[in-house]
């Protein structure tokens, strides 16, 4: 599961509605929007603040605690509700924070009855997430301030990586039926969204719990066939050894499946991968990127990588640095290792935190260099861009791109409305993305989608 800590301001509602502070992954973003709809339907308003927490790192938890304290200081009369993985794992710790009136478990936060009975005493206890066996679909048709939409297709995780507590926050793996996913995507396209991201905790484990045992690739194939009006489909984090053959065929043949794959790699040294209890080795990661690039030469790769895992030597770390180059990784999510209480890795010999931070910084620098090389290789090309503001967005490979006036003197200019797909010509590269002009006449319109 890819988990980047988000700005606590992301996802806040207007002053008249429930306020949401979201931390963590794309799945949390999706669930926050589902909670917003449920809370609004139940009649809750601006006096309610919902904090959706993340447990991937200690930093994610620290930021959420800090946001709760700030929210209470600035809104002493508001009631603060805390949910998410960190709250599921240690509910008493979060209930003790100032202003928190209730902690809601992950199994209950998307149930309408939770929000309808919120004011009843002891109405929403934190239950045993490991007993969860189903994941219901939730019709979310609006994502506040976002140009792309997220659809949950899977929940939970059956793996037990030694550094990870997420299975104890999310429960066992369970899948959303194909028909429910199709219905959700149709509604989003009807609402004007041009790009949909399929998300979950471990989406490559999709399907074994459903009738017929559909794979993730089969889900994508049916979705693209049944919703032909969807221009862009994107996938969240993938486990490289769990990708099925149907998904490989789509990577090769389907232009609406975006040429950007984010991989849960974590490390570049086999010994550390084994101590992490990962399901792949270095050679598997390299074989994956080679195969994907042979099928789709323009594809770009993101990756989650951990620096400073217990027992990691400088040689082990160098193998991760080398993997960035050898696998052709472009967009890195780098995390200094963070001890998670109760995990096997927390009982292993730990590296000093200063060493973890220093190695993470070096790995991020390698990521900046890799991204810059990718950006420079795109100069002169015409890119199809999903606009997220009037003058910026992301390409099909998920490269950030910003419009500049003709000649590239300064930022600005209106490419179009947020949510539109437009064609832009790349004129320069920067450390943080691409600079572009509106495409020349005849290239500025997006072709009809088959």
Description:
Helix content is 32%, strand content 20%. It is α/β, with parallel strands linked by helices and 450 residues long. Helix 7 crosses helix 8, helix 8 packs across helix 9 and helix 12 runs parallel beside helix 13. It is globular and about 60 Å long. The N terminus and C terminus are likely disordered.
Topology:
Elements: E1 19-22, H1 26-41, E2 48-53, H2 58-74, E3 79-84, H3 85-89, H4 91-95, E4 100-103, H5 112-116, E5 149-152, E6 154-155, H6 166-170, E7 174-175, H7 178-190, E8 195-199, H8 216-226, E9 232-235, H9 245-253, E10 260-266, H10 270-276, H11 282-295, E11 300-307, H12 314-327, E12 331-336, H13 353-377, E13 382-389, E14 392-395, E15 400-403, E16 421-430, E17 433-438
Parallel strand pairs: 1-2, 2-3, 3-4, 5-8, 8-9, 10-11, 11-12, 15-17
Antiparallel strand pairs: 6-7, 13-14, 13-16, 14-15, 16-17
Helix pairs in contact: 7-8, 8-9, 12-13
Which terms summarize this structure?
13 helices, 32% helix, globular, 4-stranded parallel sheet, Transcription Regulator spoIIAA, alpha/beta, disordered N terminus, OB fold (Dihydrolipoamide Acetyltransferase, E2P), 450 residues, disordered C terminus, Rossmann fold, single chain, 5-stranded mixed beta barrel
